Amino acid sequence: MFNSSIRPIDVSTDLNGLADLLYTSFSDARDIDGERYIAYLRRFSQAALFAEIAKRKPEKYSLPGEGFVYEEGGRIIGNITLSSFELGKERIYLISNVAVNPDQRGKGIAKALTQTALHYIESQGVRQVWLQVKQQNPTAIHLYETFGFDTFMTRTTWMGEKQHAFLQQQNGSSIRKRKRSDWEDQKKQFEQLYPLELTCTYGFDVDSMRPELKNVLRDFIRNKISMHWVLEMEGNRGFISYDLYPYQTHTNLWLTAPEAMLEESIRKLVPFAYKRIGMEVRLNLPAELGAQACVDIGLTALNTLLWQRKYLA
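That's the N-acetyltransferase domain-containing protein sequence above. Prediction below.
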């Protein structure tokens, strides 16, 4: 049903209002990524020329290119952001930043925005819609379940901040650089721990880690350094890989190991990599998996997210 208070987001005029809304709406549950994103929106909103340029291709600048706002009296009091990505040959939409001003909650605004977004996505001929919701947000989980969303995985992102020098330094004597002969084992482990549904939202392709000349050349052109390390224990191998770019705010760690040596791999490989990276690191794992080892080395849980999806007719 048409709602006159809901309109498409306009990157050239709405960024500051959106930043205000996100700051207010998530005041009790904002994490470091949220703080950075809000600050980024504010900076962009102050540069009118750049905001107008970004309007042509907002996703290039990590801005909300698609989505809707709920406006009342000229003020944005609700928002839903949409983005799309490719999974194989299928286009999928991701819903994010569903926010309502705390003073306006309980009026069905989030429901109206979600309904509008789903109608729009369906009109684009897309069959799947995904979203991520914090495990500690039962109100939002209930809302999405009423729309037919189901959880298909639950993941925790662990973080080691740059100043967290208290990460335990483990003996790295059994850690070496990856060899070409290690690749098939690493790839098999990687695909078990990091499903395609996860890596595609990161824009990450497991084959970018393959030890071959074209990847070396691609990394050189992109000014990227890729590192791969192996931990050997009693005939088994655990792996950690990461990419270093100029100006990145944090480094994603891709750690894999047989289940029996996963915790020991976390305890040894993460501090080993962290010491060489020298900036904030992130490690994404299935919820509860390796949790004690992450805590033991000083990582903190940034968030635990339920990944949900809905199939459209």
